[in-house]
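Troubleshooting: if your tokenizer reports a length mismatch, compare your output against this known-good record of 405 residues.
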Amino acid sequence: MGKRNGKSLKKTRQLQQQRGEDEEVKNAPHSFVIPRGKVGKNVMALVNNMRKVMSPFTAEHLKVHRRNVMKDFVAMSGPLGVSHMIMFTKSDTSVNLRVCRLPRGPTLTFQVKSYSTIADLSHHIRRHDVNDNHFKYHALLVMNNFSKEIKHQKLTASMFQNMFPSININKVMLRNIKRVVLVSYDEEADLVDFRHYHLRVVPLGVSRSVKKLQKKNVPKLSKYNDISQFLLNPGVLSESEAELDGEHNSVELPQKMTGTGNTQNDQSAIRLKEIGPRMTLSLTKITDGVCGGDVLYHKFDTLTDEQKAEIVKKREQRKKLKAERTAQQNERVKLKKQAKLAHKERSQQGQKDSVKTQDEGESDGDSYKSVDDSLSDDMDDADYFEQEVGKKPEHGRYYNCSHCL
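Known-good structure output:
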């Protein structure tokens, strides 16, 4: 067997990698991020920023029309493989966020206490360098301070976890992780903080002067007599440029990562820079359906057991009435179809009878004609003249006259 060349091996490796990526994309959770109603330009900017957060497993350029209803998104979630829907609405008093699990629920409703968009943060953060390459791979989710004993906190943590793809630590490529989403619960204020960061890894044990020399743009060294003056000069760093690295953010890299000096098994520091958006959320309600159903949790209204039983009873009555109306409508449709089919059969039978009657009339006309022909053959012209006029014709008037022969 001949030896395979490098180009063939490279192509095979690329195909295998593509199959693995296709399978990963298929199994990953996808989402819709949409506004509902009139929200204004600021909330619309927040919607577009949230689509950036959920990239690449979301419809970033999804257009929502006024005529679209909730059933349209729920119906299309199955064929498109969409598992979650994030909705932003605006009322006279607040901005609300709803997170739905498709197609059957539950739904978490948050009140957005405060928010900042990417554009807002870019004006206050130094070197807000974010490009499209950071959004080619999904973000890493970090959950903080959620209790597993409290039901609504446990359900909230589970909802956020299922919105992002799970990570296999044995197969994940660390260089692909560019972003981090932090969802933290503040127990004292009973609020949920949502943050979105850009992740960067830098080597430890290397001074800032050496790092500047490792970059493509070499710093200006004309004022120094020797390179050691630049390397040993403590005035190279300003206080604002100082980076506080220590045990709290230092790790040993199991893989080689992007960036100069980030080699395998070396100590590096993890640094986070906020991208946005930033939101402070307050959980107000949880229902078991898509924007409806039984209320599992409500922050302001506490119902007694009797009130809950009454709500369940009314809901069962509405379901029963709806089922009866559906059955009646189906029965009416069935009767209309039967009447239409019977009318069609009668029409077809009438057409057949009409054709049969017409055929019988033509056959009777042919029989009458044949009788007249036979009579005319047996009767000669002179006899016919005598029958009609009442006297015999003159001699020699008709050729086929039997009296003139």
